[in-house]
Amino acid sequence: MGDVATAIMDAAEARMRIGGFNGFSFRDIASDVGIKSSSVHYHFPTKENLAAAVIRRYTDEVAQLLKQKLTTGLDPVTAWTQAFRATLHSKEHMCPCIAMGAAAQDLPAEVAAEVQNFFSMCLKEMVKAGLPRDGAARLLATISGTMLLANALDDRKAYDQATRDLIEEAELSAV
Question: H helices within 23-132, ranges in order?
């Protein structure tokens, strides 16, 4: 992928983290990147194509990050909690898939499918890492919900408070 296409995706992702699918336009992206909106259309013919490409890339990046974390010996609960905590404490504050997942029923089909793929990947990888399916669902629901809560309240500590019990339970079960 070329530098311009990558810059377009980066700008779209930043806006999607804040406002979801409806939080950006091609005109916004073009302004952010310093190009004409026709250039955005050249690389991504529709807004749906762009948003789906961003979510696909993000899903791949998260999957790779978690594989790296798990190879260091971290238990799956700690690995996933730390990964999402890093997002929460980053400049962006929000996972674009969580931001868009809250409105998944209103997303175009192509974008909704990619958001669903992200959450399915998370559950599949959590189970693959050793969590039972219900434990994986509980972990993902806790991480997603507390990320929304922490952003809504502008209180990053809410995430740590909500995930602390999950980490402690994982540490006790490993003993």
Answer: 26-33, 37-43, 47-71, 76-88, 96-101, 109-128
